[in-house]
Design a protein that fits this description.
Blueprint (H helix, E strand, L loop, with lengths): L10 E4 L3 H12 L4 E4 L11 E4 L2 H6 L7 E12 L2 E15 H15 L2 E3 L2 E8 L4 E7 L6 E5 L1 E4 L6 H6 L6 E10 L8 E5 L9 E5 L4 E7 L3 H14 L6 E8 L8 E4 L2 E5 L15 H17 L4 H20 L4 H10 L2 H9 L5 H11 L2 H12 L12
Parallel strand pairs: 1-2, 1-10, 2-6, 4-12, 10-17
Antiparallel strand pairs: 3-5, 4-5, 7-8, 8-9, 11-14, 11-15, 12-13, 13-14, 16-17
Helix pairs in contact: 1-3, 1-6, 6-7, 7-11, 8-11, 9-10
């Protein structure tokens, strides 16, 4: 056990991530003594442009607005010479991740949470009356220990807290994107998406983050080859990269319980540490916020709650959709675009990807052949890794 223990804070959030800081903000605002422990000497300053639905504003209210750098009002979907254009009733938001983290940290501190830097999580000791976090100081010196009744792991896809508390290691995939100038004639309120299954079972995207620049990216399955594939795509489309951004993203393969009861206290997971990522698009900001809300509510009021159950249903619906389309070939995607009649496009315009159940039901109602197309692709191969796991 490390030396220099203290018992000043009752709740520890390990990791200054988006979901972790939001959980700290909610708990501190409710009057709970909360401490955020970040291993680095400062909050993550690595730039990464992300796109989220307007549901972020529904959740955060005015919080997070400083991170919004652009609004998206339409999507263009490309495959094999075909294009489908989808106008959005509510604009999507392009955000800068590091700016969002800083804004959430300020809000958490204003609510009463303490943020401490340079304390890297090493291990977890289970005592009869408390959980002891053993941490390494980034500036050297002896390890430091601190005791808490509740610990929240918010330290990313490869969470050390999760591993220390006995959760299995998740599957992850590489995300790589390049900063490029916008092609001539492209308006900054439009996102372009390309489906090229020979390159990736997911898709390429071009997301404008300013009137003149954007990010082109893809999700791969092999980290070593993903950047090479992206560079080939950029060369083909005559886009010159000005820099690259990247991360490893957890793959949701089934719901994992977010709480573990240990001798001395409870451990919870939020955000990427909990695998709260939409596996259709590999987006995790909004789902991370929702998971943080559910965990904060569980800590404040005890037990499971409707927020976590609703999130589980949504993530499982995304998993079902991903399983249906993961084996799509180029001809499947071409057929998909051809099947997007006016009613189906209106469904996509009116409902966001954070409403997968409603979108799936309406699409199948207005264009039943879409469901048949998905089942044919599912039966033809291209199986998605993992499966549903039981648990609450």
């Amino acid at each position: 056990m490390a030396s220099g223990q203290n018992t000043q804070a009752k709740i520890a959030v390990v990791g200054g991530s988006v979901a972790g800081l939001y959980a700290a903000y909610l708990l501190a605002r409710a009057g709970r003594e909360t401490k955020v422990l970040e291993g680095q000497e400062q909050l993550d300053s690595e730039a990464r442009s992300l796109i989220v639905t307007a549901r972020m504003r529904d959740i955060l209210g005015g919080l997070g607005e400083k991170a919004v750098v652009n609004e998206i009002r339409r999507f263009e979907l490309f495959t094999d010479g075909r294009v489908a254009k989808i106008a959005l009733r509510r604009p999507d938001l392009v955000i800068e991740r590091c700016a969002l983290i800083k804004e959430l940290a300020v809000a958490a501190q204003a609510a009463g949470a303490r943020v401490e830097f340079g304390k890297k999580f090493l291990s977890l000791d289970q005592n009869p009356d408390a959980l002891t976090l053993n941490m390494e100081r980034s500036n050297g010196g002896d390890p430091v220990g601190a005791q808490f009744q509740t610990v929240i792991g918010a330290d990313g896809a490869l969470s050390r807290v999760a591993q220390a508390a006995g959760w299995p290691k998740p599957l992850t995939v590489p995300l790589v994107q390049a900063i490029v100038g916008l092609p001539q004639g492209m308006t900054p309120d439009t996102v372009r998406v390309w489906f090229i299954p020979d390159d990736t079972p997911y898709f390429y995207w071009l997301i404008p983050h300013s009137p003149t620049e954007g990010v082109v990216g893809l999700i791969g399955e092999d980290g070593a080859s993903t950047k090479v594939v992206l560079e080939s795509f950029l060369e083909k489309h005559q886009m010159q990269p000005h820099g690259f951004q990247g991360a490893r993203i957890p793959i949701y393969t089934g719901w994992t319980p977010v709480r573990r009861e240990l001798p001395g206290g409870d451990v919870y997971l939020v955000g990427d540490a909990a695998g709260h990522v939409k596996v259709t698009t590999i987006g995790g900001i909004v789902t991370g916020f929702r998971g943080a809300m559910g965990v904060a509510e569980a800590i404040l009021h005890g037990g499971s709650n409707g927020r976590l159950r609703a999130l589980r249903r949504e993530l499982n619906t995304h998993l079902l959709i991903r399983k249906l389309i993961h084996g799509f070939t180029q001809s499947h995607y071409s057929h998909l675009v051809d099947l997007l009649n006016s009613r189906a496009r209106k469904d996509l315009e009116a409902h966001t990807r954070d409403e997968p159940g409603g979108v799936l039901w309406r699409l199948c109602f207005h264009q039943p052949r879409l469901l048949l197309l998905g089942f044919r692709a599912l039966l033809s191969g291209g199986r998605f890794p993992g499966s549903f796991r039981p648990g609450v």
